[in-house]
Specification:
heterodimer; A: alpha+beta; OB fold (Dihydrolipoamide Acetyltransferase, E2P); Dihydrolipoamide Transferase; Chloramphenicol Acetyltransferase; 3 domains; 6-stranded mixed beta sheet; 4-stranded antiparallel beta sheet; 18 strands; 27% helix; B: alpha/beta; FAD/NAD(P)-binding domain; Enolase-like, domain 1; 7-stranded mixed beta sheet
């Protein structure tokens, strides 16, 4: 028997660390050649790691959510024959890394009457183990009415700071004395006074579930944090009368829908953005805030915020300026499908110069979109509603839609942003101008 | 009239222990604070109360001890009869007071509190005028803290003046009287009366109630009564003072049986209690809710007017400096945005009589009145080695605890130097200690503190040394 070590592959583009997002195998599993062992993720692309050999999994190189350096040991297999690693030396060096998996802390932390804790990740247990010696599990009685809660001055002061009325806190100390630990438990919601009636509909629930923020979710979290931390956002909302645009869209779909596919509003909006950024080149730009350089782009690569099961992704319609509405619509559909099935490539998920976000019918009245750093603008689409409007002294029904757009105030001033949105609005309200130049 | 306007966040009226602590804490918390005091900083406590009386008591004890050595002393010490230059004693006391009030001023300054010397007059809940001697200074504030304290009660039939004095004058005598009549045998009267007796004066008490220290139970008072007898102090109980003697040297008195007589005296100390200082600074203009003669407050020291706070003697019993200090600290923290309440488990009370008396929390009688089933036990100092070596075997330590869970709800003690035991008592109660906690704590031998542990052991039914 020999040992075969699979290392984290270099996925290119100077990436030094890759995150493990899923293990497809566990230690002890037998694997065959080409069987997928793990999913790993770089900036936005998820890559499957296949096994090059037959063998048995001995150890995994990390927990889901951990980032491993390129070249670090990803997985260790027992194989027939010599393998690719000197068994003894490797085993010694890697011993500590295996500890978190098999190690079960000796005195299991007594979590009173909270079943859901059982699901807590085992990796956290070693840290918690020395903290809590086993305590007797007993439901401490609450005080009788009118009886003063018994607690040391420091506990009382902390309760005030936490805004907790000590009357409601059960004391686990001698004679019902309330300890700091009791306060902690109360804060954690574990010792609320029992619900008065055993009514299923209003039963008190005490469980909790920890959801690790890993993979795409963590990526989204980081990107959103980056954008909000770095970029002083301002949001500009304008109402657009899309009655004519909708009429045109219905006409186009009736005439060409069968051959060229149905159009939504999105490709028409993309066309309006393409035209508007010609007059406002500051908007179609990326701001390198470390080098203090704004790069204006002639091509308009429009990111389309797309909801997938895993979370938000932003596939990019490249060269929107060179596409007619049907070409754009087809590209949007293709990219959305790729993103939702995890097939989008790195190139398809990066390089946008401006982003559009639309929740369609769920678009709401107003939104405050977060800029896709390092871009400087994002255009948000709110829902279309038919409303009465006064025109020439008479009331008419019009289809109205808000655009909620955010800008990077470091490089875009309010006047420029407003001018850009008014330009977009102008194109949308008079749809012929989208095509006649 | 030329007026200067000024503004601050917190304005404190009164530089006693409540007011100055509130101001220091507020300063620490970054609250712009002005403290207005017309007399010396430190209030009654530092200038004419706690501290000077303890100085006088210490001097009296030292003199009394020396006088004992001039006669028969079991310690084998023999000295010539001592003399005392009372003016020097008073100067020594004034030195201590000066150091402490100077220290308060320095602490206020260090914490950025502006002290305005002058008498405050409340114009409205947010404006105070201070008469500094020159043009009146008007200060606007967001929060007004009333800490004006209390003053000695005067008997209508026996107004202060001449040889009728209050505790203030009694703490700064220029001469010692041959015979001092003390009207009122509460803790202030007793502390001073005993001190004067030890300094060589003849002392007679006139008390309207049926016993000494009417606020304390019989068991605690008995060792004090014994001590008075031993010191040769006369006590008239259930007796009332009708007025000054016709020749102005003494008082006319009616005893319990209705018989009137004249008590000749060189000096009369009236110590019949203290009342909150609510007059003379425009308080009535705020129309605050009152609680009898006191300003009504809730458990955060809020009065009935928003952002007007009151602490200390102005707000009720117990009129003790440490209560005022704790309230002052709390109010400053509340103003700084913290959540605080004044809910102490116990406020200790100490009488620096001979022997000293300490009461913390509930007495057995209190517990019975509240219907709490309690056990209590006491341990006598007669069985404590350290007490014997101090020639202070009178008295005892008593503990009161709930019968069901042994949580300690009260401590009392009477004996020499038991005032220092108050620390252990109040800490046990605040921490929610049970008898077992105190019984299971090793107390240093030989100390008076062993009596604390033994009392707890005795309550549990297994005292070792009785």
């Amino acid at each position: 028997m020999g040992t075969h070590v699979i290392r984290m592959p270099d996925l290119g583009e100077g990436i030094a660390e890759v995150e493990v997002v899923a293990w497809r195998v566990q230690p002890g599993d037998a694997v065959v050649e080409d069987q997928v062992l793990a999913d790993v993720m770089t900036d936005k692309a998820t890559v499957e790691i296949p096994s090059p050999v037959h063998g048995t999994v001995v150890a995994l190189g990390g927990n889901v959510g951990e980032s491993l350096a390129v070249g670090a040991e990803l997985i260790r297999l027992d194989v027939e024959g010599a393998g690719n690693a000197p068994a003894a030396a490797g085993a010694v060096a890697d011993e500590p890394a295996e500890l978190p998996h098999g190690f079960v802390p000796e005195p299991e932390r007594v979590e009173e009457a909270v079943a859901s804790i059982a699901g807590a990740p085992a990796a956290e247990a070693p840290a918690a183990a020395p903290a809590a010696p086993p305590r007797p599990v007993q439901a401490p009685a609450l005080r009788l009415a009118g009886e003063k809660p018994l607690a040391a001055p420091a506990v009382r002061k902390r309760a005030w700071d936490l805004g907790i009325e000590l009357h409601y806190v059960a004391g686990s100390g001698p004679a019902g004395r309330i300890t700091h630990a009791d306060l902690d438990a109360y804060v954690a919601g574990q010792r609320r006074p029992p619900a008065p009636a055993p009514d299923g509909r209003y039963a008190q629930r005490d469980g909790e579930e920890t959801v690790p923020v890993i993979g795409l979710r963590r990526k989204i979290a980081e990107r959103m944090q980056l954008a909000k931390r770095r970029i002083p956002h301002f949001t500009y909302v304008e109402e657009v009368d899309v009655t004519e645009l909708e009429a045109l869209r219905v006409q186009l779909n009736a005439r060409y829908g069968d051959d060229r596919g149905k159009l939504t509003l999105l490709p028409l909006l993309m066309r309006a953005v393409v035209l508007a950024v010609r007059r406002f080149p500051d908007i179609n730009a990326r701001y390198d805030d470390e080098a203090n350089v704004v790069t204006r782009h002639e091509p308009v690569h429009i990111g389309i915020a797309t909801q997938t099961d895993a979370g938000l992704m932003v596939p990019v319609v490249r060269h929107a300026e060179a596409r007619d509405p049907w070409s754009s619509a087809a590209e949007i559909a293709r990219l959305a499908d790729a993103a939702r099935h995890g097939k989008a490539t790195r190139d398809e998920l990066s390089g946008s110069t401006i982003t559009i976000t639309s929740l369609g019918a769920l678009g709401g009245i107003v939104s405050t979109p977060v800029i896709n750093h390092p871009e400087v603008a994002i255009v948000g689409v709110n829902r279309i509603v038919e409303r009465p409007v006064i025109r020439n002294g008479g009331m008419v029904a019009r289809k109205l839609m808000n655009l909620s757009s955010s800008f990077d105030h470091r490089v875009i001033d309010g006047m420029v942003a407003a001018g850009f949105i008014q330009a977009v609005r102008g194109y949308l309200e008079c749809p012929a101008t989208l095509f006649v130049e | 009239m030329a007026e200067t306007y000024d503004s601050t966040t917190l304005l404190v009226i009164g530089g006693g222990p409540g007011g100055y602590v509130a101001a220091i804490r507020a300063g620490q918390l970054g609250i712009p604070t002005v403290l207005v005091e017309g007399a010396d900083l430190g209030g009654t406590c530092l200038n004419i109360g706690c501290i000077p009386s303890k100085a006088l008591i210490h001097a009296a004890d030292a003199f009394h001890q020396a006088a004992r050595y001039a006669g028969e002393s079991p310690l084998g010490i023999r000295t010539a009869p001592p003399t005392i230059a009372i003016a020097s004693t008073v100067a020594w006391k004034d030195g201590i007071v000066g150091r402490l009030t100077g220290g308060v001023g320095a602490l206020l300054k260090k914490n950025g509190v502006r002290v305005v010397h002058g008498w405050a007059r409340i114009l409205d809940g947010k404006t105070v005028e201070v008469d500094e001697g020159g043009a009146p200074l008007r200060i606007r504030c967001e929060h007004l803290l009333l800490a004006t304290g209390s003053q000695a009660v005067e008997l209508p039939s026996l107004p202060f003046g001449g040889n009728v004095v209050s505790s203030t004058e009694a703490l700064a005598p220029s001469t010692l009287p041959g015979h001092l009549v003390v009207v009122g045998a509460g803790y202030i009267g007793l502390e001073l009366g005993i001190a004067y007796r030890k300094l060589g004066a003849r002392v007679t008490f006139v008390e309207a109630a049926g016993r000494l220290l009417p606020a304390y139970d019989d068991e605690l008072v008995r060792p004090v009564a014994t001590s008075l007898t031993r010191l040769g102090i006369a006590v008239h109980l259930e007796a009332s003072v009708l007025g000054p003697a016709d020749d102005g040297r003494g008082v006319r008195m009616r005893d319990g049986g209705g018989t009137e007589s004249v008590l000749a005296a060189d000096r009369v100390l009236v110590a019949v209690g203290r009342r909150p200082r609510t007059e003379g600074f425009g308080l009535e203009g705020l129309l605050l809710d009152m609680n009898g003669r006191f300003v009504h407050i809730d458990n955060q020291c809020r009065t009935s007017m928003r952002n007007v706070w009151a602490i200390g003697d102005l707000t009720g019993e117990p009129m003790l400096a440490h209560r005022a200090m704790a309230q002052g600290e709390m109010v400053a923290e509340i103003i700084a945005g913290r959540r605080r309440h004044f809910t102490p488990a116990a406020i200790p009370a100490v009488c620096f009589t001979d022997p000293e008396v300490v009461v913390v929390g509930m007495t057995p009688q209190d517990a019975a009145r509240l219907g709490i089933d309690c056990i209590s036990a006491h341990f006598p100092f007669a069985a404590n080695g350290r007490a014997m070596t101090l020639e202070a075997t009178d008295g005892f330590v008593r503990v009161v605890a709930r019968r069901d869970n042994h949580v300690i709800v009260g401590w009392q003690a009477v004996g020499g130097a038991v005032s220092e035991l108050s620390t252990a008592f109040v800490q046990a109660i605040e921490m929610g200690a049970q008898l077992e906690d105190v019984a299971g704590t090793i107390h240093a031998h030989p100390t008076l503190g062993e009596a604390v542990q033994e009392a707890a052991l005795r309550a549990l039914g297994h005292a070792l040394h009785v």
